[in-house]
Design brief:
The chain is of the alpha+beta class. Helix content is 39%, strand content 12%. It has 10 helices and 9 strands.
């Protein structure tokens, strides 16, 4: 049974010239003797990820999505720089190999990195593969503990303290994502006005213990051991990593966490098997994180609400490209329903919050 992530033929409009990539690789990997093949990983809504195969050797190519104009979220040079510094102190990230900003090659900047092999979980578990409740619980505990490890990285020692500005971080995030929603909003999208006003009013002060923020930390960005599928061997997608408030990272992560008892409209938003028997709840994840780090989580309603809003903006940005006809990927058409469900979840949280 093959339960590792599979790459497929590239989607129409997202193909890459094999000869161009072959020539680029020969410069950076001089002992490359085999002709390469290029396949595309089908999942994900952000940067495009391709598998390069040459005999028994494999690499991964990352490039921005076709038609994207979200500069900060698709900066290949920045992601390559982050991985280069991070790999020295946190080798569970992919090792970067080569980068180019020459858009004449494939139409955008791109970089090549090593392929981390293992299990990557998507919406539902692969056929014939399952977790016992105990395994599911250990996976969730490892997910929390690995995030604690990421938040414990010495940013200055790793030469990563220049990738973000902790002072004013929360304020910039709220204002920035509010502006992004305004730019991405389509006539059929909810207005989010009350949510944006609540976030602006409830912003906590700057943390005095900033950390590395992965900014997209979730189950489908984990590489798991095929022999021990509850063990995390790698972390992917560092494109939005920065230096800021770690509780923003946790809030963003839990926005994706759909429990089996959540309302039906949120069940439709589920993209990972967070509903497995034995999986930790959002409350249990927060409690374990607080216990491991000693951080004050009394204002976590703000961070979780922000995570829901940010996820809605990301979905709306992608839906906007579909709405305008920039991409034809029919998966994107359904995202507008997710945006609406996320506004409802954020409003429900605001009503029940004691902040």
């Amino acid at each position: 049974m093959d339960i590792t992530d599979r790459a497929e033929i590239a989607r129409p409009g997202e193909e890459i010239d094999v000869n161009v990539v072959q020539s680029f690789l020969k410069i950076h990997i001089p002992d490359l003797d085999n002709e390469i093949q290029i396949f595309q990983f089908p999942s994900g809504y952000s940067n495009l990820t391709y598998l390069i195969v040459a005999g028994d050797r494999q690499w991964v190519l990352r490039r921005p999505p076709v038609g994207a104009d979200i500069t900060s979220g698709h900066d290949m040079a920045r992601e390559y720089k982050v991985l280069t510094s991070l790999y020295r102190v946190f080798p569970r990230c992919p090792r970067p190999l080569a980068f180019t900003e020459d858009t004449s090659l494939i139409g955008s900047p791109f970089f090549i990195m090593e392929k981390l092999s293992g299990i990557i979980l998507r919406k539902d578990l692969p056929k014939g593969f399952s977790y016992s409740p105990d395994q599911a619980r250990r996976l969730c505990e490892n997910l929390v503990d690995t995030l604690v490890d990421i938040h414990s990285i010495d940013m200055k020692a790793a030469d990563l303290d220049s990738i973000g500005r902790p002072q004013g971080y929360v304020q910039r995030q709220v204002h920035g994502w509010t502006e992004r929603y305004g730019r991405a909003k389509t006539p059929d999208a909810p207005d989010f006005e009350s949510v944006m006003a609540w976030l602006a009013d409830k912003m906590p002060k700057d943390t005095d213990t900033p950390s590395m923020v992965h900014n997209d930390y979730k189950i489908d960005n984990l590489v798991l051991s095929p022999d021990h599928p509850e063990k995390i061997t790698g972390i992917l997608d560092w494109e939005m990593a920065t230096y800021g408030d770690p509780l923003m990272d946790l809030g963003n992560s839990l926005a994706y966490w759909v429990e089996k008892d959540d309302p039906q409209d949120m069940q439709l938003m589920r993209t990972m098997p967070t509903n497995m028997d034995g999986a930790l709840t959002r409350k249990e994840i927060l409690e374990r994180y607080a216990r491991k780090t000693g951080r004050d989580t009394d204002q976590f309603d703000f961070y979780y609400c922000f995570g829901l809003f940010r996820l809605a903006v990301i979905a709306q940005q992608i839906y906007n490209r579909y709405y305008r006809g920039i991409t034809k990927n029919k998966r994107f058409a359904m995202l507008i329903f997710g945006v609406t469900a996320l506004e409802k979840a954020a409003k429900n949280l605001m009503e029940s919050s004691r902040l």
